Amino acid sequence: MRFLNVTIEGDSLSVCKKLNSSSQDRSLIAPIISDIKELAVGFWDISFAWVRREANRTAHSLAREYRADSAPYYWIEEVPPRTAAAAELDKRDLLSVRV
């Protein structure tokens, strides 16, 4: 889809910090962090932002519905109904925090 400027949200603060850091990671997940950083160079601008798990229902909905061992799924304009409902709850919670 040729997205060039993206923000990736995650609920693991330590992973987001590792991905945003310019220093070399020496943790057990260092190979994964390195792979992600290598893929990230394909974007003009990419950032990794931490969000509270409670504010990230959308990701959890997708993870529950579509396991890694199943066939890949792609959505262009529509998302599964449960995921859309979770996104609306996330949006509502985000707006209530900003008020």
TrEMBL record:
<dbReference type="InterPro" id="IPR044730">
    <property type="entry name" value="RNase_H-like_dom_plant"/>
</dbReference>
<dbReference type="InterPro" id="IPR002156">
    <property type="entry name" value="RNaseH_domain"/>
</dbReference>
<protein>
    <recommendedName>
        <fullName>RNase H type-1 domain-containing protein</fullName>
    </recommendedName>
</protein>
<dbReference type="InterPro" id="IPR053151">
    <property type="entry name" value="RNase_H-like"/>
</dbReference>
<feature type="domain" description="RNase H type-1">
    <location>
        <begin position="3"/>
        <end position="65"/>
    </location>
</feature>
<dbReference type="InterPro" id="IPR012337">
    <property type="entry name" value="RNaseH-like_sf"/>
</dbReference>
<dbReference type="Pfam" id="PF13456">
    <property type="entry name" value="RVT_3"/>
</dbReference>
<dbReference type="InterPro" id="IPR036397">
    <property type="entry name" value="RNaseH_sf"/>
</dbReference>
